[in-house]
Amino acid sequence: MAEKLTDDQIAAICRAEVDGASGNAAGEISHERAEALDYYYGEPYGDETEGRSSVVTREVMETVEWILPSLARIFTDADNMIMFDPVNETDIEQAKLETEACNYVYWKQNRGFYNTYTFLKDALLSKTGILKIYYDNTKEETKEEYTNLDEIELGQLLNDPHTEREIIEMEETELGANVTFKTTEKIGRIKIEPVPPEEFGIARYARSPYVEDTNFCYHRTLKSFSELVAMGYDIELIRSLPFDESAMTEEELARRNKTDEEEPFDFVAEESMRNYFITECYIRLDRDGDEIAELLRVTLAGGHYSSGSSRLLDIEEVDHMPFATCSPILMPHKFYGLSIADITKDLQRIKSVLLRQMLDNTYLANNSRTAVNDSHVNLDDLLTSRPGGVVRYKGEGAASQYITPIPHNPLPNEAYSMMGYLDDVKRQRTGVGDETAGLGESALANVNTGVAALAFDAARMKIELIARILGEVGFKSAFRLIHRLLMQNQDRLMMLNVAGNFEAVNPAEWRKRENTTVQVGVGSVSRERRMVALETIMAKQNELIANGGMGTLVQPFQVYQTLRDMTDSFGLQPQAYFTDPRTLPPPPPPQPDANAELALTHARALVMDAESKMQRNQIDVARVQAEQQIRFRELELRQAELQLKADIERQKADLVLLQSESKGDREIANLEIEIQKQDAEKRLEALELELKTVQQEKDREVEIYKNQMNNLTKLVQEDMKTGGNDFQKVIDDLKRDNEMLRKQIEDFNGTEG
User: Residue 130 in contact with residue 195, Cβ under 8 Å?
Assistant: First the structure.
């Protein structure tokens, strides 16, 4: 088991990490950020020559400021920048509530737009945008006075779980007690603050853009004496802290610009207004010797340039690093990526040199040098250049003999070509060019054909990639931190307005969420292209409606959806302009028409009469068919009976013939005749039974048919009640069926006769 680390050892490790961290004041990263700020402000390069042009182009500033509006629109246009994904079907509504709560904290409880703007600009200009997200437990002290309190009311005030009350003064009266309290209310809420890049540092060996993947980072900022006291630190300890000189670092000087004050603060005698550098270090160390590193927050005071003189204030074990960071151009296996300034600084320097030379050449062309004979020309007159001025000279002949302009080389066309080439390079690197900086009249004229929209999208592919990186790495980490802090610290219900309905949310009951979706404005297509697509859809819908497609190919709510998407694209509220047809109540039933009701009654009478006739005809046909089959069967039975009787007579004749034979033969013959007679009687009984069965089956079939016709009649009547049939068609069909049945009966009767 490893040895435990003492507080002094932990402080020493933190000081060493701070001094060696990437991004500190003495490092190369800080120098590059300071240089980027100088280029942004257009500061001179230091190689200017007196009498020559010293102009500085502003490619860095122009590119950053052209990208910023696009990114700001992407991240502020979406209803919810970040959405938490549900884990199953039952979690859909809960995920929506948690999404609304986190977005409410980011945009409403904090300065959401300012924080977003600062984060984006720091990333574009200074390599990395940084947001610090933490739970603020600051307590607010006030005085409260109450009159005529009874014992119950007094007890409720003293037992308030959210406010600590201390009785300062109490006076008993006949009606109760007059009490003066000193209240200490816990104002707990999540705070989100953009961190200046020069105040943040990370382990030099960091290999990921995510802060939580490293073992060390720090945040160094100024805190006043009063702020440190409010944070709970001992007053004498604060007074003993080393006081830092007021000189600024290179990056701080660059950020303030040459027009600002040189000093960030001045020494003041008032103790409460004194400022101290406080360094919050987040480091993973095995403090207790259990071979498992714990995440510690180590607070040091003092040490502006070097942490060697800093003092340990506090050590606390925590469960996360409160930072969300991201670079616009990621470099694999590095924390710090590239900024827009990094990829445009060289273009600004080259264009500045070219522009200076072009201006010098133009100045020389407008005011060229002259060769003079100083013995014949008055130099004072020559050097005084003014319209209508006179130059005196001595000698005979023309002035050109004594004053000769010196020719200069004209500006080559390659210089202008080079300037255009540099603009093309900038567009290829950043995506910022004519397509995004502004659209010409010809492009706007072709917007309906999608030409401008397609060109716009192609030019902004790099910008949209930057937006995706910042969303997935930076803002997703920020909202995960917000979600975590709400779960751990929010001890009160939150009331949220969700789609016009107020919902009570209890973050203490939430589950941990890792799956989140980033909503980057209009997504992978630009707003312009989206509008073109919606206009095309609307035109097609109108065409289908004009051709009778409403209710079949196009539904009313689909038209509303198109209108809603169009208003959303403009950043407007759809409900202010259009109404969802699905929310409308159903139309009232139409009032009955007297004439139509009379016609309906007459039609029903005709249908019922036709049904009765059809039913009678069908029953008659069924009866005739059954009787015919019975008669056919009776005829077959009669024929069989006659055949049986003939057989009996033949047997009698055979019997008479056998009487002349021997007695034995007669007995045998009599026995055979008896057997045949019995057999014939059995066959006759079987035929009579079969005839009876056939008759019963036919009767049963007729009864079944009657029941089917009754059911059919009921169905037709019910359908008439609902008005679902064309009555004239029903009547015509019944008449046709009735006529067919009549013909069948006539044919059948004719066949029988």
Answer: yes
Q: Are 5 and 285 in contact (CB under 8 A)?
A: yes
**For position 571, what pLDDT does the model report?**
64
**Tokens read off for 529:** 């292209």
Contact between 615 and 717 (Cβ < 8 Å): no
DSSP structure class, residue 554:
B
SS (H, E, C) 428-445: HHHCCCHHHHCCCHHHHH
Tokens, residue 623: 């009866």
Strand-strand pairing, 189-194 and 129-136? antiparallel
Q: Nearest-CA neighbor of 130 among 478, 465, 471?
A: 478
Asked if residue 8 lies in contact with residue 312, where contact means CB atoms within 8 angstroms, the answer is yes
Q: Residue 753's pLDDT is what?
A: 46
- pLDDT value, residue 598: 66
pLDDT band at 566 (very low <50, low <70, confident <90, very high): confident
Give the closest residue to 199 by CA, choosing from 277, 271, 298, 137.
277
Extract the tokens encoding 159: 């037992």
Residue 519 has pLDDT above 70, yes or no: no
DSSP notation for 189-219: EEEEEEPPGGGEEE-TT--SSSGGGSSEEEE
Calculate the alpha carbon distances from 144 to 159, 166, 187, 238, 488 in Å: 15, 10, 17, 31, 30
Burial class for 567, CB neighbours closer than 10 Å (0-12, 13-18, 19+): middle
* pLDDT (0 to 100) of residue 446: 44
Torsion of the alpha carbons at 232, 236, 242 and 247, rounded to the nearest 10? 60
Nearest to residue 98, comparing CAs of 518, 511, 517? 511
Predicted confidence (pLDDT) per residue in 251-294, tens digit = 777 777 655 555 444 455 566 677 888 899 999 998 888 888 99
Query: What digits encode the pLDDT tens for the residues 302-325?
Result: 776 556 678 888 899 999 999 999
Top-ranked range on mean pLDDT: pick from 247-261, 306-320, 519-533, 618-632: 306-320
Over residues 97-134, the pLDDT tens digits come to: 888 889 899 998 899 999 999 999 999 999 999 999 99
Looking at residue 265, what is its pLDDT?
Answer: 47
Residues sharing a CB contact under 8 Å with residue 139, sequence separation 6 or more, in sequence order = 184, 185, 186, 187
CB 150 within 8 A of CB 179: no
Q: Check whether 211 has a pLDDT greater than 50.
A: yes
Contacts of residue 554, defined as CB under 8 A and 6 or more positions apart, other chains included, come to 541, 544, 545
Task: Give the span between the Cα atoms of 608 and 617, in whole angstroms.
Answer: 14
Question: Cα(466)–Cα(131) distance, rounded to whole angstroms?
Answer: 17
Provide the token pair at 370. 């002259």
- What pLDDT score does 659 carry? 57
Q: What is the dihedral of CA 211, 217, 220, 224, to 10 degrees?
A: 80
- The residue behind tokens 């057997």 is 675
Across the chain, which distance is largest between two alpha carbons, in Å?
A: 197
Position 480 scores a pLDDT of: 92
As a whole number, the mean pLDDT across the chain is 78
> Residue 265 is encoded by which pair of tokens?
């603060």
In this structure, is the dihedral angle defined by the CA atoms of residues 264, 266, 267 and 272, taken in order, positive or negative?
A: negative
